[in-house]
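Input.
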Amino acid sequence: MKAVAVKPLTKNSASLLDMPKPVINDSEALIKTCAVGIDGTDIEINQGAYGEAPVDEDILVIGHEAVGEVEEIGAKVTDLHVGELVVPTVRRGDSSDYQERGIKKAHGFLSEYFKESPANLVKLIPELGNIGPLIEPMSIAQKAIDQALKIQQRLEGWSPENILVLGAGALGLLLTMALRSKGYEVYTFDIADSDSLKAKTVQNTGGKYVGAKETTLEKFANDAGLSDLIFEATGNSDIAFSAVNILSQDGAMCLLGVAGRDHSSQICLGCLNNHIVLGNRVLFGSVSSTRTHFEEAIETAKKVNSQWPGVLNSIITDDMSLTEYGKAFQKKQAYQIKGVIHMDGET
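Output.
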């Protein structure tokens, strides 16, 4: 079978390889991959920033945002059927010794087939098949929202009136959609032009787009008020820590973006410390997601599709065949949001 793999920590090493088709045991399922989304993590792994091959191997099959069809099941598998669509979860094991498929110590899904335990496969209705690669990043958004709301249960009677999403890439837009589907007032801040697809996507869900070319976070806060919840999805540490200054008393901020390791900045640590402590504010990070978050993501996607038909599909701006995988690692143009590789060549 064909697969796209990298040599971890080697820059621009992604290549299309021939690999053995997986053979399942009695407790596994063989999945024919339909499509795989490419995100910043995949790009950074191909740039050599991180990534870890499975034990005793020197390559890592990448790709962790997948949807596939059950092709074969083991004799002991009772809760899956051939022909069903599934989305695989990513993380395996506990926090002290874990694997992440396509990222750390386990091959990913950018291959024609993969095998998996049914416990790590979440069923997807056919109506959502075309946006299947968005379920994994939607699960990241769902987890961030869930954790933020659980943290804020520390405050009796607290309810956010003003939520800010930093970044209108795929994750930022999925956060916006998920929050809007729950009825929250949402502002989304990004550098894209106010007439861009990103801005229109925010507006199509009833959110309010804030253009970084037209205003600053400080001016935004002066006009709209301080934010009760902030979700950072830019990977820009300067923006992230600047945003702490517009977090309201008792507010919470979730960091989702991964900043470059070679980036340095001067901030007043004492000021940051006092701002968080004296304002009873919370700053926390979130990564990966559980099966429960995947299941919640599917329900959220159903709701978003019902409320704003076509809005999820609209952020998939680049459809590629497997042989065109190299396009996924090229620098994005301003109008591009999400790239998806279709394994059957149909785009």
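The two ends are 20 Å apart (CA to CA).
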